[in-house]
TrEMBL record, chains A, B:
Catalytic activity: a quinone + NADH + H(+) = a quinol + NAD(+)
Keywords: FAD, Flavoprotein, Membrane, NAD, Oxidoreductase, Transit peptide, Transmembrane, Transmembrane helix
Residues in coiled coil: none
Species per Swiss-Prot/TrEMBL record: Lysobacter yangpyeongensis
Top-level lineage group: Bacteria
GO molecular function per UniProt: oxidoreductase activity
Protein name (database record): NADH:ubiquinone reductase (non-electrogenic)
Gene3D superfamilies per UniProt: 3.50.50.100
Location of the FAD/NAD(P)-binding domain: 10-326
Listed EC numbers: 1.6.5.9
Enzyme class, spelled out: oxidoreductase
Amino acid sequence: MTTPPSGIPHVVIVGGGFAGLWATRALARDGVRITLVDRRNHHLFQPLLYQVATAGLSAPDIAAPLRHILRGQRNVEVRLGEVIDIDAAARTVTLTDGDSLRYDFLLLASGATHAYFGHDAWAPHAPGLKTLDDALAIRRRLLLAFERAEAAASAEERAAWLDFAIVGGGPTGVELAGTLAEIARHTLRNEFRRIDPAEAKVRLIEAGPRVLASFPESLSARARAQLERLGVEVLTGTPVADIDADGYTLGDARVRSHTVLWAAGVAASPLGALLDAPRDRAGRVLVQPDLSVPGRAELFVAGDLASVQQDGKPVPGVAPAAKQMGAHVARVIRARLRNEPAPTFRYRDFGNLATIGRMAAVVHLGRLKLSGLPAWWFWLFIHIFFLIGFRNRLIVLIDWAWAYWSYQRHARIILGEQRPPLP
Amino acid sequence: MTTPPSGIPHVVIVGGGFAGLWATRALARDGVRITLVDRRNHHLFQPLLYQVATAGLSAPDIAAPLRHILRGQRNVEVRLGEVIDIDAAARTVTLTDGDSLRYDFLLLASGATHAYFGHDAWAPHAPGLKTLDDALAIRRRLLLAFERAEAAASAEERAAWLDFAIVGGGPTGVELAGTLAEIARHTLRNEFRRIDPAEAKVRLIEAGPRVLASFPESLSARARAQLERLGVEVLTGTPVADIDADGYTLGDARVRSHTVLWAAGVAASPLGALLDAPRDRAGRVLVQPDLSVPGRAELFVAGDLASVQQDGKPVPGVAPAAKQMGAHVARVIRARLRNEPAPTFRYRDFGNLATIGRMAAVVHLGRLKLSGLPAWWFWLFIHIFFLIGFRNRLIVLIDWAWAYWSYQRHARIILGEQRPPLP
């Protein structure tokens, strides 16, 4: 048992994503001692993860070590570790290495993972995108698929390797589909001798009636048109019936494909289940208006793991919401320490952006709706601005400028086993 | 069996390193059809591999897809695959996927791997550095060692996690030791709360009488002095007796350490053993003066897999020698096609450089001997100049400038399993 120096309240924060990191920083000048626990050594700029999966950026471009970000904040200790138990009555958190941390305040901000809605057998055949390891695994699969197509012994095999399906028409699915179409049509041009990569079929499959359902209908329609112009086949109202090693099934139709990516659903981190608290269907913890757990004034949940309703609508699982929740938990802890009433969380919606591909994006800010090139520039500068670290901003800007002019993607390196994923 | 169009001589080149790639490029305007086979999809700029292992550069910064490099050379087909058999009488090469390639000329340039001199049991405890996967595995180990030290339950465990040994005082060992000392003393400063990373012990262990044995003695001595100034403990004339999961043995002395890196020896690629040709102790093929295999005028070996003597000394296993051999094989093939006599290979030695760490390097060019800051600047610009790809040069230059001013290393991202390598 590791005990903090007596007297100073100990805040344990689980998860170094946007919610956890923003809470940690907001408590920099308070008389508390913070232990930030994460399973990974880095904060990840998740909005650009699809760029790593599609070989446009290197993994370190969008991640920074938590220790490095927080090196100057002397009231923080960063701990690489995984939480396996929470005892809310005893106020302790237990880690896999057996160590346990006693807390005065606990913030659970361990985020979300992808979910297969009861079809866990699909997972090995349709990888999802939540971590850098996921992104590198997808990059490997995408690049190897073209290699396998080039070496294919039959036309059927070749077609199966050149068939790419992305399941789920939310922002991640749209980004992956648009970028993959660009890779096939432009990036790989002239590089193969037996196949024409531009013949690759990129299909975006959405069960609901439209892509980017969180945007106004007019922007969904424009996103669809932009995807189609990039060469993506968009299927809406089309649930996937089955996925296996050899392809997928839509209704009665069977499609042979060796590359299916999953962007269809998220579930909350399993840590939420360790709390004795009500949860929604996706496993998110239903929190109080101040983001604490019912009956536990010292225990908070924020970010993608928290289910918050505002004006009858759920607060969305996006980075700005997570940052705002993290900062709010810091304010509530401060209020508790001063025996003041806790403020109520209020999400400020600054708008909604999604990128689609080269010069294609949609932006929705209040009454402003943009699409196409202006939306793309807007998206690009917002994302560079919010990246952590001056070096990262500069390098990402250079990589994008380079990619823009050359149509190239510099990270097209296959790591690990070079044989194909087993079909 | 894949057969090239009849009539045009088919050159099969195995290995896309410096020798194979330079041979391929040199044959761009000849009336031959080339198949370049590599197990990996990328050419690797091996001289900077230690920078990836020590988190200074990202993997894609020092690698480029072979297809991309060669996209404009229409007489080349790049094939991702692994050779498992060579039938020199039938002139065929067989790949793991069962396909076999019939050749008129064959160049084997599959390089070298690290060797444990009969101590293969040491391999899991003392990883070597030859591929990008090796570099990322070493990066993981180095970064996790500091994390484990921070979380260690006892002073002994902490010391064992802060003990780093590099076995082998050649260029790779010197680079790793110097850079690791800089990471411990500068990069990680202020980032830990329970350990002082500067207390890490970095030890370079060489069995022979001096480090950088391929340099003049005066430069070896200066390299040693520079290493010691950076904080490396240099042991010469000290063979390692044993390495296991818990540490290593020098003579009778046992040292507890969880991080031992292997930079002590290379062996030729196992493909050399598939030829019916004499080989040296390290498995390199003893080639004729024109780099062909005795009795096989159409079969060549180049790069680290070839053993070539010149003026009574072996041609060293360095990048410039490999490039020159590759270009020479192209000339010999051209001569054979014209029924002209084959030229004799002659290595032009442009000098020898090794970097040690921040502002520390040694350079030996003819009568010129440099060390310290001037040698370091020289090394730096030579290496940037020879990197493939404009983008890579620019990004590496920015990364180094950034690292120089900030002492930071941007790629300190732990990927894969975050638990410790089993001690």
